Amino acid sequence: MNDHDEIEALRKALAAEHAAVYAYAVIGARTEGALQAGLRAAFDAHRGRRDQLRSLIVNRGGRPSEPESSYTLPSTPRSAQDAVALAVQLESGIPATYLEVCAAPSAALRRMAALAMQESAVRSYGFQPALTAFPGMPVAASAATPGTATPPPTAEGG
What are 143-153's pLDDT values in tens digits? Predict the structure, then answer.
Protein backbone atom coordinates (compact mmCIF):
# COMPACT_ATOMS: atom_id res chain seq x y z
CA MET A 1 0.00 0.00 0.00
CA ASN A 2 1.53 3.35 -1.02
CA ASP A 3 0.85 6.78 0.51
CA HIS A 4 -1.95 7.52 -1.97
CA ASP A 5 -3.69 4.21 -1.18
CA GLU A 6 -3.34 4.88 2.54
CA ILE A 7 -4.97 8.30 2.18
CA GLU A 8 -7.78 6.85 0.06
CA ALA A 9 -8.43 4.15 2.65
CA LEU A 10 -8.62 6.83 5.34
CA ARG A 11 -10.96 8.89 3.15
CA LYS A 12 -13.33 5.94 2.78
CA ALA A 13 -13.42 5.47 6.54
CA LEU A 14 -13.96 9.22 6.94
CA ALA A 15 -16.91 9.13 4.54
CA ALA A 16 -18.48 6.38 6.65
CA GLU A 17 -17.94 8.41 9.81
CA HIS A 18 -19.57 11.46 8.19
CA ALA A 19 -22.61 9.29 7.41
CA ALA A 20 -22.63 7.85 10.94
CA VAL A 21 -22.61 11.31 12.51
CA TYR A 22 -25.54 12.32 10.32
CA ALA A 23 -27.47 9.13 11.05
CA TYR A 24 -27.00 9.38 14.80
CA ALA A 25 -28.22 13.00 14.74
CA VAL A 26 -31.41 11.82 13.03
CA ILE A 27 -31.84 8.78 15.27
CA GLY A 28 -31.12 10.70 18.47
CA ALA A 29 -33.62 13.41 17.62
CA ARG A 30 -36.37 10.76 17.53
CA THR A 31 -35.65 9.16 20.91
CA GLU A 32 -35.51 10.10 24.57
CA GLY A 33 -34.26 8.96 27.94
CA ALA A 34 -31.59 6.33 28.37
CA LEU A 35 -31.75 5.29 24.72
CA GLN A 36 -31.11 8.86 23.61
CA ALA A 37 -28.15 9.07 25.99
CA GLY A 38 -26.66 5.91 24.45
CA LEU A 39 -27.24 7.25 20.96
CA ARG A 40 -25.63 10.55 21.94
CA ALA A 41 -22.57 8.67 23.19
CA ALA A 42 -22.36 6.86 19.84
CA PHE A 43 -22.76 10.20 18.02
CA ASP A 44 -19.90 11.66 20.06
CA ALA A 45 -17.71 8.60 19.43
CA HIS A 46 -18.22 8.81 15.66
CA ARG A 47 -17.66 12.56 15.69
CA GLY A 48 -14.37 12.02 17.53
CA ARG A 49 -13.30 9.29 15.10
CA ARG A 50 -14.28 11.57 12.18
CA ASP A 51 -12.10 14.36 13.54
CA GLN A 52 -9.21 11.94 14.08
CA LEU A 53 -9.46 10.69 10.48
CA ARG A 54 -9.53 14.24 9.13
CA SER A 55 -6.31 15.00 11.02
CA LEU A 56 -4.64 11.81 9.83
CA ILE A 57 -5.45 12.64 6.21
CA VAL A 58 -4.25 16.26 6.50
CA ASN A 59 -1.05 15.18 8.28
CA ARG A 60 -0.32 12.88 5.32
CA GLY A 61 -0.80 15.71 2.83
CA GLY A 62 -4.24 14.58 1.70
CA ARG A 63 -7.51 16.40 1.38
CA PRO A 64 -10.26 15.06 3.65
CA SER A 65 -13.63 14.29 2.13
CA GLU A 66 -16.37 16.67 3.22
CA PRO A 67 -19.73 15.47 4.51
CA GLU A 68 -22.74 15.34 2.24
CA SER A 69 -25.55 17.77 3.01
CA SER A 70 -27.75 14.76 3.77
CA TYR A 71 -27.67 10.99 3.55
CA THR A 72 -30.32 8.47 2.62
CA LEU A 73 -31.00 6.26 5.61
CA PRO A 74 -32.28 2.70 5.11
CA SER A 75 -35.30 3.63 7.23
CA THR A 76 -36.68 6.46 9.32
CA PRO A 77 -37.05 5.43 12.94
CA ARG A 78 -40.60 5.84 14.20
CA SER A 79 -40.12 4.04 17.50
CA ALA A 80 -37.39 3.17 19.97
CA GLN A 81 -37.24 -0.30 18.42
CA ASP A 82 -36.71 1.23 14.96
CA ALA A 83 -33.99 3.50 16.36
CA VAL A 84 -32.17 0.55 17.89
CA ALA A 85 -32.45 -1.47 14.68
CA LEU A 86 -31.02 1.40 12.64
CA ALA A 87 -28.17 1.96 15.12
CA VAL A 88 -27.31 -1.75 15.02
CA GLN A 89 -27.38 -1.74 11.21
CA LEU A 90 -25.16 1.33 11.14
CA GLU A 91 -22.63 -0.08 13.60
CA SER A 92 -22.60 -3.42 11.78
CA GLY A 93 -21.55 -1.69 8.56
CA ILE A 94 -18.80 0.50 9.96
CA PRO A 95 -16.12 -2.22 10.37
CA ALA A 96 -16.07 -2.95 6.64
CA THR A 97 -15.05 0.65 5.95
CA TYR A 98 -11.92 0.21 8.06
CA LEU A 99 -10.70 -3.02 6.44
CA GLU A 100 -8.46 -1.25 3.94
CA VAL A 101 -6.90 0.82 6.74
CA CYS A 102 -6.00 -2.48 8.42
CA ALA A 103 -3.64 -3.11 5.49
CA ALA A 104 -1.69 0.11 6.05
CA PRO A 105 2.05 -0.23 6.62
CA SER A 106 1.76 1.95 9.72
CA ALA A 107 1.20 -0.05 12.91
CA ALA A 108 -0.48 3.01 14.45
CA LEU A 109 -3.02 3.15 11.61
CA ARG A 110 -3.69 -0.58 11.81
CA ARG A 111 -4.25 -0.27 15.55
CA MET A 112 -6.60 2.70 15.09
CA ALA A 113 -8.61 0.78 12.49
CA ALA A 114 -8.83 -2.32 14.68
CA LEU A 115 -10.00 -0.22 17.61
CA ALA A 116 -12.62 1.53 15.46
CA MET A 117 -13.93 -1.86 14.33
CA GLN A 118 -13.97 -3.16 17.90
CA GLU A 119 -15.75 -0.07 19.20
CA SER A 120 -18.47 -0.43 16.56
CA ALA A 121 -18.99 -4.07 17.49
CA VAL A 122 -19.25 -3.16 21.17
CA ARG A 123 -21.73 -0.34 20.45
CA SER A 124 -23.83 -2.65 18.28
CA TYR A 125 -23.90 -5.28 21.01
CA GLY A 126 -24.78 -2.61 23.57
CA PHE A 127 -27.82 -1.60 21.57
CA GLN A 128 -28.93 -5.16 20.80
CA PRO A 129 -27.09 -7.98 22.59
CA ALA A 130 -26.90 -10.64 19.90
CA LEU A 131 -23.85 -12.48 18.67
CA THR A 132 -23.32 -13.13 14.99
CA ALA A 133 -20.49 -14.77 13.11
CA PHE A 134 -17.71 -12.55 11.85
CA PRO A 135 -18.16 -11.84 8.12
CA GLY A 136 -17.18 -14.91 6.18
CA MET A 137 -17.68 -17.31 9.06
CA PRO A 138 -20.46 -19.86 8.62
CA VAL A 139 -23.38 -19.74 11.04
CA ALA A 140 -24.58 -23.13 12.28
CA ALA A 141 -28.33 -23.76 12.44
CA SER A 142 -28.16 -23.83 16.24
CA ALA A 143 -26.78 -20.28 16.21
CA ALA A 144 -29.86 -18.91 14.49
CA THR A 145 -31.29 -17.95 17.86
CA PRO A 146 -30.27 -14.37 18.75
CA GLY A 147 -27.95 -14.14 21.71
CA THR A 148 -26.30 -17.48 21.13
CA ALA A 149 -22.86 -18.17 19.81
CA THR A 150 -21.56 -21.11 17.84
CA PRO A 151 -18.27 -22.56 19.03
CA PRO A 152 -15.59 -22.74 16.36
CA PRO A 153 -15.12 -26.09 14.64
CA THR A 154 -12.54 -28.39 16.19
CA ALA A 155 -9.54 -29.78 14.38
CA GLU A 156 -11.53 -32.96 13.77
CA GLY A 157 -14.00 -30.91 11.68
CA GLY A 158 -16.88 -30.72 14.11
Answer: 444 443 434 44
